Amino acid sequence: MNPFVRLWSIKRITRRGRLTSCLILIALVMAPLVCALIFSDSMMEGITSKYIYLSDGHVQINGEHLTSISSMIGEENEKLMIYSADEVTSGYALMYSATNTSSVMIKGVSDSYFNELRMKQITFERNTEPSSSSIKGIAISRATARKLEVGLGDRVALMIVPDDVKKVLRPVLVRIDAIFYSGYDQLDELLSFIDIDYAKELYSDDSSTTIEILVKPDYMEKINDVIYAFGLEHDISRWSDHNVSVYENFVTSRQMIMIILMLVVVVAAFYTASVAQQMVQDDIQDIAIVKLVGSSNALVRKSAFLSVYAVTIAGMILGIGLGLLIGCNLGPILTWLSSLGMQSLSFYLLDFSINIPWLSIALICAMLMIISFISIRISLIRTRIITPMRLFTSL
Amino acid sequence: MHPIELISITKRFRTSEKGEGEITILNNINLDVISGQSTAIIGKSGSGKSTLLHIAGGLDSPSEGKVLCKGTDFASLDDKHRSALRNLHIGFIFQANLLLEDFTALENVMAPALISGKKESECKDRAVQLLERLGLADRMSHVPGKLSGGEKQRVAICRALMNKPEVILADEPTGALDEENAAEVEELLLNLVKEEGRSLLLVTHNQDFAYKCDNVYLLKNHGLTKEK
């Protein structure tokens, strides 16, 4: 690089003013963008995990294949990349308390259902007092308990929605043995768990029973392989098939967030071009002097470009750093906001693992760099019309 | 081959933006800036002295005629080569010192050498030497805003000499200085040009200063006449 270009660029960057504001603005734009990407990605991952681990599993197989699947599961687990396979009987019910009603999905599961992976997604508060009655126990969510205004040990009535229209609707009483909390109220308020044998009594139709399969973490990207390994592609469904609207919401949200962030980046990139233009305007006298002592227009342009581009990149890096710093501490920040009484936070997870979407961040950075590269260069074409004669015509 | 040759230079300016009328400032001027000699052009204000100097330095283009710098016609060169020619073979000094305000005195002096691609370590010695010769040893790290008018003009002289150009073009170099400073700068400029074996083309209305040069021309009625 020409030594004068380097020296002049450093002088411009270290001079407080327009370029400093540019650096700060780019950093202030990039930080929330990175933060928003981390938030949306981590939140969606977190919510997806809740649906997978507590509601539908990675893969669900129709219960009619129970016998054949059971024989495959066990010794073949390793080969099939399966972490667990649990029989689940489920159906819908209206749950009544003395004061309120709630519509819930009743999931009949065995004790082994809440394995290590699932227990990472949920916490239970259990009733330790032994019961003398024959009333069956149920685990309801904290959200449902709040809605029904009930607590551990209380009784609620379930109005089972029958799978056969000829059957008579009848209420059954259950006792609240456990209250769970997954961190995501929107899902929690739909779920409740009972013993699988009791669930089979309530929902006797075969189609109510399925096998929920969890894939080993290393094989999550290869769920299709698991499906083909069973040879039952037509009777297998995934969490996204059961929660189409949630899944499509996520896909659309991801796309919309990226589009919005990219638009913001485009505006920021064009802002750098405007800074370059203004810088040239401010430096007309200097540019004319430098040309007078023998600089070509290319050198002038190079120096101006280097100044603005270096500041843009520095602002971007600073913004990413800030965004990562805030993004990685989103959990405590959201919890603090929630403690201030922000109701809208009930739609989000407050405790989730941070997932940094490096690819999206890289995409946004690349976009900022490319657009600002082009727009700054275009805006600097104007330096050509600044000649040393400017010094004498303006004096 | 002379460092600068002006051949049949005519310069006309439009009297309005629409270009309806034109006035002639310089008419068929021929001038050779002779190597190692100083040449002064005198004339009344508005006679076209500065315009002639701008054309000689390739800053402005003539309406007719040619300017040869080391035998090369300025008009035949693109921006890159014209700039390089100006950078290496011509040094400029003006009434307004035209220094870069963010640069120190030393950096201002080094600028032409840095532009030509020399590393700072290569050109620093010469810049320091020039500044010391002009009595600015303790002002090297000062920005122009911290220098007096005379000091700024001396920095401008150092800058003009930095690349050891064959010719120095000076337009009223002492015009903005008080008598004492003006006399000092005149002496320094003429001595330096002589010591370094450069040519000088000086434009001034100060006859005393002009007649210290080897050749003196009067610019009158759009033409040049030799006075000395």
Give a structural overview.
The complex is a heterodimer of chains A (395) and B (228). With 395 residues, chain A is of the alpha+beta class. Chain A contains 16 helices and 10 strands. Chain A has helices at 3-14, 18-56, 66-72, 77-80, 116-119, 142-148, 185-188, 196-202, 223-230, 239-242, 244-282, 284-292, 297-327, 330-339, 358-379, 390-393; strands spanning 59-62, 82-96, 101-109, 123-126, 136-141, 155-160, 171-181, 191-195, 209-215, 236-238. Chain A has a 6-stranded mixed beta barrel. In chain A, helix 13 packs antiparallel against helix 15. The longest helix of chain A is centred in the first third of the chain and has 39 residues, at 18-56. Chain B is α/β, with parallel strands linked by helices and 228 residues long. Chain B is 34% helix and 27% strand. Chain B is built from 7 helices and 10 strands. Chain B starts with a strand and ends with a strand. The mean pLDDT of chain B is 87. The A-B interface holds A 2-4, 7, 11-12, 15, 286, 289-299, 387-389, 391-392, 395 and B 50, 54, 59-60, 79-80, 83-84, 86-88, 90, 92, 94, 96, 98-103, 107, 111-112, 114-120, 159, 163.
Strand % of chain A is 15-25%
Rg of chain B, Cα atoms, Å: 18 Å
User: How many distinct beta strands of chain A?
Assistant: 10
Low-confidence stretches of chain B: none
SSE series of chain B: EEEHEEHEHHHEHEHEE
Please state the average pLDDT score of chain B: 87
Broad shape of chain B? globular
Summarize the structure in short:
Chain A is α+β, with helices and mostly antiparallel strands. Helix content of chain A is 53%, strand content 18%.
